[in-house]
Amino acid sequence: MARKVREPAVAELFYPGEAESLRRLLGELMSRPVAEPHTPKALIVPHAGYVFSGSTAAAAYARIAPAHARIERVVLLGPAHRVRFAGLAAHTGDAFLTPLGEVALDGSALGRLADLAYVSFSDKAHAEEHSLEVQVPFLQYLLDDFRLVPLAVGDASAEAVAAVLERLWGGAETLVVISTDLSHYHDYETARRLDNRTAENILGKRPEAIGYQDACGRTPLVGLLELARRRELRIEQLRLCSSGDTAGNRQRVVGYGAFAVYEN
Known about the structure:
This protein is an alpha/beta fold. It has ten helices and twelve strands. Strands 2, 3, 4, 7, 8, 9, 10, 11 and 12 form a nine-stranded mixed β-sheet that branches. A three-stranded mixed β-sheet has the order 1-5-6. It comes from Nitrococcus mobilis Nb-231.
């Protein structure tokens, strides 16, 4: 049977489509050393084009660099922007492709979700979805060898997302990545006020206080926060900014945040 590979949909739009240029840009974004001795169990990262949010995402990804040889599985959740569906959607393929090569999907991990009615397979949900795709080159650049568990999140409850994360939580070999931007299309000062409030709710593990207007990846985010509260995880804010700080004007901005989540 022929292998099935999910082709990149936003290369050249959200990040460089040529391998050398992409690797060079990632090297620039990841150039700052990190002294944090502990490896996060989960990251919360933005998913805009690298010119807008790449430096913010890099602030989180830099925290896993010391564990590059230990992390073998990445559970990646992001919101579905293009297709509406209920629950969470996996991909039926064997791998995700980026300009840096293929990353194999972890079929055995997905098999652990088979009895959950709110988890299904939908290649359509993944075909043009950028919230997952833009995270993969960062992971390829940093990690030695890993398998990917990509899940697009549609209309789902925080409890459903938390249950999926609990099933896939694993040990030190598993990293969880939640892909979300923050507020959208406010003026710079309004966005900063709203995003500071959202950041406080993330740090305080208050999923019920975060609305859909506060984060486009609100559903996977609150699922992680529900689990973080249950497991008494520690959350650290690494960076908070907007497109008005990076590559856009300040009249209509998108907010970005980077957070690391640690087990005690």
